[in-house]
Write a structure and sequence with these properties.
single chain; 249 residues; binds 1,3-dihydroxyacetonephosphate
Length: 249
């Protein structure tokens, strides 16, 4: 059985005051029926971990370097995230792939570093609107999975998030059929790389304009094991109903 996961990605949002949202979220879900993860900016990570220490909410990073230490100004290693209290780290988010030109190989190296540091790697994949319209979605997802997912992944150390680039922060959401098609495809592809048993245990998240109003419908899709939520994860009042919808799914 895959335990469902409601993950929030705060991106480059949040200063000290945002820790209150985390505390409110934790209080609202003392014994949740799913895993809850918030990935704040790294400046808040340590305090965020302290804020949720006695709760069921976990915290994670939004990116890590592939190396454990060294002369890489401005970068953060997976070990450092772990030390700050992270249980997980997002790698290969489309904003990293676009803003920082990260390749599949770099994402794979980061995911390997994350797993080696004892973190869960949340590997993101997803097509652009151009690729979707050109009918290239599944080919792209196949290539991204093949290039970004470490061969050594175990079901407990890997999460894959399908985030169509055109659905991120736009209010546009793929149809339920499109979400189902990609998630089914990802499960099958992962079985090729990791074997049936591992692939059957990997949690697959949908991300892109998830809100309280569309969450239940998305969570009802086979092979959707939760969500990676951006904007609607910033406020406990917005994220909490999404967590509740997942608990009921
Ligand atoms: P939004 O939920 O704001 O569309 O962002 C999704 C996302 O990119 C999460 O990583």
């Amino acid at each position: 059985m895959r335990r469902k996961l409601a993950a929030g990605n705060w991106k480059m949002n949040g200063t000290s005051a945002a820790l209150e949202e985390l505390a409110t979220l934790a209080q609202a879900h003392p014994a949740p029926g799913c895993d809850i993860l918030i990935c704040p900016p790294s400046t808040l990570l340590h305090r965020a971990a302290d804020t949720v220490a006695a709760s069921a909410v976990a915290v994670g990073g939004q990116d890590c370097h592939a190396k454990t230490s060294g002369a890489h100004t401005g970068d953060i290693s997976a070990d450092m995230l772990r030390d700050a209290g992270a249980t997980s780290v997002i790698v290969g988010h489309s904003e990293r792939r676009t803003d920082h030109g990260e390749s599949d190989a770099q994402v794979q190296a980061k995911a390997e570093a994350a797993i080696a540091a004892g973190l869960i790697a949340i590997v993101c994949v997803g097509e652009s609107l151009e690729q979707r319209e050109a009918g290239e979605t599944l080919d792209l997802i196949r290539a991204q999975l093949a290039g970004s997912v470490p061969q050594s992944s175990k079901a407990e150390t890997l999460v894959v998030a399908y985030e169509p680039v055109w659905a991120i922060g736009t209010g546009k959401v793929p149809t339920i059929e499109q979400i189902a098609e990609v998630h089914d495809f990802m499960r099958t592809e992962l079985a090729q790389h990791l074997g049936e048993d591992t692939a059957a245990g990997v949690r697959l998240l949908y991300g892109g304009s998830v809100k309280a109003s569309n969450a239940a419908e998305i969570f009802a899709v086979t092979n959707v094991d939760g969500a990676l939520v951006g904007g609607a994860s910033l406020k406990a009042a917005d994220f909490s109903p999404i967590v509740s919808a997942l608990e009921k799914a």
